Amino acid sequence: GLPVARDGITGLRPSDEILRRLCGLDAVCSWVMSTQEDNPDEQIVEYIDDNDLDLDGDDVEILQTPRKKAQHQFIDSVGWRLENMWPLAWALGFSRLPTVQGMIDDGVIQPLFKFLPKMTDDLEGWLQRQKVRASADVVDLEDFFYCAHNAARSAQLGGKTAPKGFDPVVGTGVIHERRHSLTWAVSPEVSWDETDLST
59-74 as b/e, with b when 16 or more CB fall inside 10 Å? Predict the structure, then answer.
């Protein structure tokens, strides 16, 4: 069931779909992490509606929660969404290659948010200015993360398949979230929630 290239066709979903998911995650992060002064409620809602951003059920739940409550209740969830955002941004031309070790840190987060379109940008115009990755590059990185995910899961079950010091809980979670983005990106017409993350 893994994405497989056939006759040179990799099956990478259209770049605009990747961008709408990336921006949907950005909107959710902004809801929880930013202030009313930086991103007023109505600006975030208009950004989502005007651009038909891709949200899953958990995203909608966060956005339906008043912001002050959401900032306390969903801060950990947003951390995992940052892990999702990194590979999606990379697929669209962000320079930092996602790795399989360590949670995302400020050294990646700050350039990532500078890379993202602003909520007032025309997304189609923004996308045209990016150097989107070749399909084969995204497929290769997804395969690498599939193998890392398999090794991490095996380590959780007691296998000696991970490097010394690897945290089988946090480390596997990081790999899982980054792989989720990559596998979804190479699985056209499959929804975010239905992405096959089996190992």
Answer: beebbebebeebbeeb
Predicted confidence band of residue 1 (pLDDT cuts 50, 70, 90):
low
Q: Which DSSP string do the residues of 63-107 spell out, in sequence order?
A: HTS-HHHHHHHSHHHHHHHHHHHHHHHHHTT-SSPP-SSS---HH
Q: pLDDT tens digits, residue range 94-124? A: 999 999 989 999 999 999 999 999 999 999 9
DSSP per-residue string spanning 35-73: -TTTS-HHHHHHHHHHHT----HHHHHHHTS-HHHHHHH
Where does the pLDDT of residue 2 fall: very low under 50, low under 70, confident under 90, or very high at 90 and above?
low
pLDDT reading at 170 higher than 60: yes
Neighbours of 195 (CB within 10 A): 16
Rg (Cα) of the chain, in Å, rounded?
Answer: 17
Does the reported pTM lie above 0.90?
yes
CA separation for the pair 24, 144 (Å, rounded): 26
- Count of beta carbons in the 10 Å neighbourhood of residue 115: 17
